[in-house]
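Work Package 3 (structural annotation) set out to generate three-dimensional models for the target panel prioritized at the project kickoff. During this period the team completed the workflow that converts sequence records into discrete structure tokens, so that structures can be stored uniformly alongside our sequence database. As a representative example, we reproduce one entry of 105 residues exactly as it appears in the project archive.
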Amino acid sequence: MRSVVTVIFSARQSVELTVNIEPGGSASAAARDWFDASWHSLGCEPLRASGKVLLLDKIMGVADALGYSALSTNNDAAVEFATQSALALEKPRVTVDLPGLTVGF
């Protein structure tokens, strides 16, 4: 499946990445595990006052921690993030809107 992942950092900074994935099964579970590990290794903080962290929060946190610079210039990091996002959500279109604090698909 072809998947387009867009990360919006600001009105002037966004990154659009296209990856091909095979969703489902162990690959999707591994992608969710990748976000768990990345969330912790990057030192991300919960977005909610309750401290509860959902998968979508992890996707936003990892995108924010990686930043525009890494995702726009480091092709390996960008492809890895886009692939893991598409696999974790199993969607052909994913939009990570950091200013709006949303992940849409």
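The first strand starts at residue 2 and ends at 8.
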